[in-house]
Amino acid sequence: MEAVIADDPLATGNNVLKFTPNNYNAAAVVEFTLGAGTKLSDYSKFLFDGYFAQGDVGWKNIIVYAYDVTPTGPAFHENTTGTQIGSWDRAKPTSTAWETIEIDLSGVPDYEGTVFLAFGFNCAGDQEDVTTIWYADDVSLVATPTSIPELGSDLSSVDIISKAGVIEIAGLQNNNIIVYNLNGTKVFEQAAVSGNLNIVLPSGLYMVQIDSKAIKALVK
Q1: Which of the residues 68, 85, 131, 150 has the least number of beta carbons within 10 Å of its own beta carbon?
Q2: How far is CA 169 from its chain centroid?
């Protein structure tokens, strides 16, 4: 197989993944580095834009496998060391435009750190003397939504100070702290905190839960 970065076949100035399988059980692999404290099982969807250009690409079951080490050997095969975490039936012939593929994930292992996701479908290397080629762009994972408490205004006993790269919470008295990003993913948790607490986070908007109350906080 060959997986290379190539020009978008439908638009100039955009780089995409071009995948040319030699034969069955061949898949493209994307490496993800998960954030600290985040597990692969925190994600519920695998998304990518696909353009299934030519050859044996129509009417295929697109499959996603997860690995915690660099995968080798055949994909979509009984001897693979990976774990199948999702599939999607694409009941269409060759593409006429980019398509958004959204695959629900289940049975996702608790891998942390660097993980590898193989995705694609079983196909012949050519069909009626036409080389099989498909493209992928904007490959991403979507976090499982987390229930966030309603925003509260009765947080007069503490001060939340937004700084560059840090949320500072002052005046804590044995409080439980949880921070969520706007996708609903928990990014920080600490119990029974007193005094001042500095939480280092990337810039963005967050929900800070103090016991049963929550408030928005901006990291500059």
Answers
A1: 150
A2: 30
